Amino acid sequence: MVRMPYDLFILPSCKKEIDKACKNNTLLKESLSKKIQEICESPFHYKPLRNELHGMRRVHILKSFVLIFNVDENKKSVTLVSFSHYDTAYSR
């Protein structure tokens, strides 16, 4: 297993969203897994968000889904905050 520069944490609500979305979709599950690894290797590569989601970043998964995450540079950690369909991702 490759050691990732940033530790990964997943909020329970995000874990639930991921499990529900990936339940019967292996392509989504594989794409998400690959993207999470990329995030942990280089989290500042992804787009920072503004307004209510200021301080967080996002990445699109298979064009239809959005993964929102937070980076703590001091702790060298990435926290997955939300995973949902694009239509509802920014309405939090």
UniProtKB/TrEMBL annotation:
Q: Which InterPro entries match?
A: RelE/ParE_toxin, RelE/ParE_toxin_dom_sf
Q: What is the protein's given name? A: Type II toxin-antitoxin system RelE/ParE family toxin
Against Pfam families, the record matches this protein to: ParE_toxin
Classification via SUPFAM superfamilies:
RelE-like (SSF143011)
What keywords sit in the KW lines?
Toxin-antitoxin system
